[in-house]
Design goal:
heterodimer; A: alpha/beta; Rossmann fold; six-stranded mixed β-sheet; 37% helix; B: mainly alpha; two-stranded antiparallel sheet; 4 strands; 67% helix
Chain lengths: 285, 365
């Protein structure tokens, strides 16, 4: 891993063999994840796989008990989330850190408001802020015609887009997205995936945490699978398929077992589910 | 939500030039969305109503006498109601604001009348005293995370008890402190700034109270801060969603403490004005006013739960209260009816404001 390497040589953010314990619980055990600028690394795992703990290590909330975190090739120890953010690691958590009753432009610049004038006449550069917000949102493919529109009136996908656009605008080199599609419908999820691609095209390193391989596969360059705190594998896109990811995540054998259990049930709709599960369990073979 | 069909993998060729779901918003809807609209309509309604019910000789309500009377009342409430409104938008209450107007008047009277301090120095000491109480209020609220309702209720009782007891102790058993010197240093110049009048004429010999100018100034400053400055953005944010505000780097604690300080300073301004007007102060002055400030803010469209409202709205709310107090007198009713009237106005305003607020969240309609 040469320091002189281009953006593609040195990962923008990397964790090497990190472990994290909470009392007797081994939340993460020997996990290694890396992401390069202009690439999307998807971290996949079911509930309890350790995704949240990993995000907290990446975003500076937790310090790993073992292993190291490297930012642009250098080992770092984040003093806290603010420290990580100051270095250009932006985490878009599920709550999005938006205030529903405030307008889009006020939310976009919250905590980083541009100002004009000095001393007692210092004021926000409202026109400038509105223009930048519109331009940045347009880059994400959203036309905000009324900058005074409140964020509460945006759809879930648009709100995600605003949070992503905001992080990108304020200098995020690494963008960590915590389950951005989990609360969204099919179409809205598609829109968010489009924004992930936009962020990648802008040269950002994106870490996309999800439990849905169907969302991860189309946008990801690399896939890291977690299960019960351990790494199940790390694949390049060319090395894997949706079917394989799905099967690995759920565990093919477990799916088959679940399918049998459901088929014993009487509810006809459950039988349909069972058939689908059986099909999914078989596909990678 | 089936997960079987892979969603679109490639971005559309061009970013959507315009979202077909965005309906152009008319100027009328835009106006309807302003938080102070309800209070403006209510103020006009109340003004017209008291013009009709006015039973004074010569219909004084519509003349300068009537206007001077209710604007002075409105000013006394509004100077504090505007910062109380900002505080409410920031998600907190200050129940000690009412008694603070009385306590600061007493501090002024003690300093000038009893200890013969120069009035201007007394003004500075009084403001520093009030600011300190504001810092204490704010600090306790952010440090303990207790509801400000309880914290400032405690401050209210402490201030009320300590000021009444203190006055009795220092003033040999009398509740009123009056300036007895012939010409206390600085009092006349301070009076001309705080407790004087302007525009006196043949039809209105007493003129308009200087407090009205302070009221206008406070409203302009409050509006400017709220809508044009970074601090204003932070006020909306800490009241709207404190976690989101913190996560985006807004100094939540500093914002809240400053709001408590602003409220206390505004209350001190009223105390200074009332002392310089009368050259005396009585204990227990201002007790109960805290509710008028809150009513003014709520009537003016400030959301009780924080995050929404305007300074102009709170000022209009104060005008409504001022009109209610004076209008009832001009109508020749017993002044006890003020409260019943204010109760009805408060209820109506809350209903109207809730509708407006829902409309704001549903802006696309």
């Amino acid at each position: 891993m040469e320091k002189t390497a281009s953006a593609n040589g040195t990962p923008a953010l990397e964790v090497r063999s990190v472990s994290k314990y909470f009392g007797s619980v081994n939340a993460l055990d020997d996990i290694s994840v890396s992401v390069h600028a202009g690439q999307v690394t998807c971290v996949l795992g079911d509930n309890g796989a350790g995704k949240s703990t990993l995000i907290k290590i990446l975003s500076g909330v937790h310090v790993p008990d073992k292993g190291e975190v490297l930012f642009e090739g250098d080992p770092v120890s984040f003093a806290g989330p603010r420290d990580a953010r100051a270095r250009g690691i932006a985490t878009v958590f599920q709550d999005l850190a938006t205030v529903p009753l405030m307008s889009v432009w006020r939310n976009f610049f919250l905590g980083n408001e541009p100002t004009r004038g000095r001393g007692p006449v210092q004021r926000m550069d409202i026109k400038g802020a509105q223009k930048i917000m519109r331009d940045e949102m347009a880059k994400m493919g959203i036309d905000v015609r009324d900058p005074d529109q409140t964020v509460g009136t945006l759809s879930g996908g648009e709100r995600q887009a605003m949070a992503i656009a905001r992080a990108v605008y304020f200098g995020a080199k690494v963008l960590i997205l915590d389950e951005p599609t989990s609360a969204l419908g099919v179409r809205q999820s598609g829109i968010v995936l489009k924004y992930i691609i936009q962020a990648r095209e802008m040269g950002r390193a994106v870490i996309f945490i999800t439990h849905n391989p169907h969302h991860a596969y189309p946008v990801g360059d690399r896939f890291v699978l977690l299960k019960r705190g351990r790494m199940l594998g790390s694949y390049l896109k060319s090395e894997t398929s949706i079917a394989e990811l799905t099967s690995l995540m759920a565990g093919g054998a477990e799916l088959e077992e679940l399918s049998h259990e459901l088929q014993r049930g009487v509810d006809p709709s459950l039988k349909e589910v069972a058939k689908e599960l059986a099909a999914e369990a078989k596909t990678p073979a | 939500m089936s997960a079987t069909s892979p969603p679109i993998a490639t971005p559309p060729t061009a970013p959507a030039a315009q979202d077909e779901r965005l309906v152009p918003i008319s100027r009328i809807t835009r106006t309807l969305r302003r938080p102070e609209l309800g209070s403006l309509l209510a103020a006009l309604f109340v003004f017209v109503m008291f013009a009709i019910t006015d039973s004074s000789s010569n219909h004084l309500w519509l003349k300068q006498t009537g206007i001077a009377a209710w604007t002075q009342q409105a000013a006394f409430f509004g100077i504090v109601a505007v910062p109380v409104g900002l505080l409410m938008i920031g998600g907190e209450f200050d129940l000690s604001a009412g008694v603070m107007t009385g306590v600061t008047a007493i501090v002024m009277a003690l300093l000038v009348g009893k200890w013969h301090v120069n009035t201007w120095i007394a003004v500075l000491i009084t403001l520093a005293f009030a600011g300190a109480i504001g810092v204490i209020n704010g600090y306790i609220v952010v440090a303990t995370k207790l509801p400000s309702f309880i914290v400032t209720l405690a401050t209210f009782f402490v201030l009320r008890g300590a000021s009444t007891g203190g006055v009795l102790l220092l003033n040999s058993g009398s509740t009123q402190i009056t300036v007895t010197q012939a010409h206390p240093p600085g009092l006349s110049s301070a009076k001309s700034i705080f407790g004087s009048s302007f525009f006196s004429s043949g039809s209105l010999p007493s003129g308009y109270s200087t407090a009205i100018l302070w009221f206008i100034a406070v409203t302009i400053v409050g509006t400017w801060v709220l809508s044009r400055t970074r601090f204003g953005n932070w006020i909306f944010a800490v009241g709207g969603d404190q976690n989101a505000a913190r996560n985006t780097g807004v100094p939540v604690h500093r914002t809240k403490i400053l709001l408590f300080v602003a409220t206390a300073l505004a209350a001190a301004l009223v105390g200074i004005i009332s002392f310089t007007q009368a050259s005396s102060a009585v204990s227990e002055q201002g007790v109960g006013y805290e509710f008028f400030y809150i009513i003014a803010a709520v009537v003016g469209g400030c959301l009780l739960t924080g995050g929404y409202g305007s300074a102009i709205g709170a000022a209009l709310g104060a005008c409504i209260i001022g009109m209610a107090f004076e209008g009832v007198i001009y109508a020749g009713w017993d002044s006890s009816w003020d409260f019943a009237f204010l109760g009805v106005i408060l209820f109506l305003a809350v209903v109207v404001n809730t509708l407006i607020y829902r409309r704001a969240l549903r802006a696309r309609r």
